[in-house]
Amino acid sequence: MKKLSLVLLSVLFLSVGVMAKGVDDGKAVYKVDPIKSKVIWTGKKVTGEHTGTVLVDNGEVHVSGESLELANIKMDMNSIACTDLSGDMNQKLVGHLKSDDFFSVENHPQAVFEATGFKAGAADGEYIVTGKLTIKGITHELSFPATVEVNDGTVTANGTAEIDRTKYDVKYGSGKFFSGLGDKMIYDDFEIEFNLVATAEAI
Fold first, then answer.
1. By C-alpha distance, which of 25, 3, 4, 29 is closest to 118?
2. With 120 labelled, which of 92, 139, 159, 173 sits at a CA distance of 20 to 30 A?
């Protein structure tokens, strides 16, 4: 079993069929499998938390020999879903997340993570992934730990990134920008958990 350094996230982070195209110099391009992959978000507030998912439009991982060169993933912000609420409460929260108060989905339908650095982490099979996350057209550097494995032609990558939403102009309910929120305050940091799968078909 080979261990490779990979990223998703995402964020940020979900999906299509997967193939790898090999070339003479040992390089290959893997396309993320959206059906088998998952991107899960968790947002917290004073009175609790909410969780949900975001789908991936497409993504690629570029590998040279046994080393990762770069990776990117494009997430469909229109697909934002909440998994801990039902009925009207669910629709209300999802609609609010898509609005200008949060992710302005109509004007910014995609979030993109581009990874260019993969450094060995403290644990076996762990890597520190470094790259740039773009949300609402705003880009910032992002680093997080991820585990990556290549086994029998299947690449799996799992990692969790913590993101300060206010850096991406998502300020609604933030104690940094609004006073007197009380128990209506929403914490600035939220999590994106990436569980990615890519299946290679050698050519």
1. 4
2. 139
| Tokens read off for 67 | 């080393």
Q: Can you give the pTM of this predicted structure? A: 0.83
- Measuring CA to CA, which residue among 37, 58, 69 is closest to residue 197? 37
Asked if residue 1 is part of any domain, the answer here is: no
Number of structural domains the chain divides into: 1
Q: Are 101 and 172 in contact (CB under 8 A)?
A: yes
For residue 185, tell me if it sits in a domain: yes
Nearest to 154 by CA among 202, 197, 203: 197
Encode pLDDT of 68-104 as tens digits. Answer: 788 888 999 999 999 999 999 999 999 999 999 999 9
Report the relative pairing of strands 154-164 and 38-45 from DSSP bridges: unpaired
Can you tell me the distance from the alpha carbon of 61 to that of 149, in angstroms, rounded to the nearest whole number? Answer: 13
Q: Residues 6 or more apart from 77 whose CB is under 8 A from it?
A: 54, 98, 103, 105, 108, 109, 110, 111
CATH of the domain at 80: 2.40.128.110
Name which of 150, 113, 92 is nearest 14 in CA terms: 113
Range of the structural domain that residue 148 is part of: 20-199
